[in-house]
Design a protein that fits this description.
single chain; 4 helices; alpha/beta; four-stranded parallel sheet
Length: 97
Amino acid sequence: MTRASILIVEDDGILALHMTDMLTRMGYTALPPVTTGRQALASVENSDVDLIIMDIELAGPMNAIEAAVHDITREHDTPVIFVTEFPPPFCKNCAPL
């Protein structure tokens, strides 16, 4: 059975390592975590990524929603799960439908 490859996109290094450790313990293949939207795009281009877990607020000029909408989901059809530490009022308008 092939293990799903999961990319963590998180600019908090400790949290990224914790998430990577949890996924590995659960039997998934955790790719090396990245910290920016641009790095996420590069990882998807260069690796076989089955799923991305991405913090909404990232370091750098491209936030997670921009990265996901612009290239990841359009060109690669890779599903993205967004996570955030902020309460719902902050994210109410993050991804309008």
